[in-house]
Write a structure and sequence with these properties.
Blueprint: E1 8-9, E2 15-16, H1 21-34, E3 42-44, H2 46-53, H3 57-69, E4 73-76, E5 82-85, E6 90-92, H4 99-105, E7 110-120, H5 124-130, E8 138-147, E9 150-160, H6 175-183, E10 189-198, H7 201-207, E11 214-223, E12 229-238, E13 242-244
Parallel strand pairs: 6-13
Antiparallel strand pairs: 1-2, 3-5, 4-5, 7-8, 8-9, 9-12, 10-11, 11-12
Helix pairs in contact: 1-3, 2-3
Keywords: DNA-binding, Transcription, Transcription regulation
Protein name: GntR family transcriptional regulator
GO molecular function, one term: DNA-binding transcription factor activity
């Protein structure tokens, strides 16, 4: 027999209040307000919220999906994952500078985790993009870029060894700042190609998103004033944290669409 309060235990052991998705959404919004949580602050884990609000995991998941689609929260996966108040979305312009520059301009803390480096022969694609001979070597650098303490970009960069002796001995937080200060090299022209893709299992783990999540795939080459290409980069951006702004200055531009 059901109690007079019409409450029951759900399959997770939480006391179910039978609240609608909209009511649970409102409850989560109240948690953010009552705790004075700021963008990037952790709200909790899915199980914790389900138990504290007395609803099933299925119900809380629907409410979280709605809040995430509205850009109010951010869910991450992995050991340090959880539910966070949505951080400020990065407005990604295409300047001739590195990521830390326009993160700082938007008041967003930046960070870098170097995942791996090596020096060796380039693969065919890298050699083609950098215009290198078969016997040339490149520095290959893999980094995870953070914004507001959370993963934003998975980045792979290749640069000719002959132009940057000792590069791997340098701190690799901002390559462009190092190239400028130590090697007196600055990009005069950058060319970027932007496409859509999804996260496989390895990438999803690093970016703390679900497998199959939408990503923005950016390939970039940077050239010296002489026309020589000195950088080839491939970047996977979290689509839920990034907006891309393209500005035209009235000069001729070219867009290639692969049908």
């Amino acid at each position: 027999m059901r109690s007079m309060t019409d409450e029951s235990k759900n399959k997770d052991g939480a006391l179910s209040t039978g609240g609608s998705t909209e009511e649970i959404v409102g409850s989560i919004q109240s948690i953010i307000t009552d705790r004075s949580l700021a963008p990037g602050d952790r709200i909790g884990a899915e199980r914790e919220l389900a138990q504290s609000l007395g609803v099933s995991r299925w119900t809380i998941r629907r409410a979280l999906e709605q809040l995430e689609s509205q850009g109010q929260i951010l869910r991450t996966h992995g050991r340090s994952g959880g539910i966070f108040v949505a951080p400020k979305k990065l407005i990604r312009t295409t300047p001739l500078g590195g990521l830390p520059v326009y993160l700082r301009a938007q008041g967003i803390d930046s960070g870098t985790t170097v995942l791996g480096t090596r020096a060796g022969p380039p693969d065919d694609e890298v050699a083609k993009q950098l215009g290198l001979e078969s016997d040339a070597w490149v520095f290959h650098i893999e980094r995870l870029r953070l914004a507001g303490g959370l993963p934003l970009v998975l980045e792979t960069t290749d640069l000719p060894c002959e132009l940057f002796p000792g590069l791997l001995d340098q701190p690799l937080g901002s390559l462009y700042e190092i190239l400028d200060s130590k090697y007196d090299i600055r990009p005069e022209v950058t060319v970027e190609t932007i496409t859509a893709t999804t996260a496989d299992r390895e990438v999803a783990g690093l970016l703390q998103v679900s497998v199959g999540s939408a990503l923005i795939f950016v390939t970039r080459t940077a050239e010296l004033g002489s026309g020589r290409t000195f950088e080839f980069s491939r970047e996977l951006w979290r689509a839920d944290r990034t907006a891309i702004t393209v500005r035209s200055d009235g000069k001729p531009a070219y867009t290639t669409i692969d049908a």
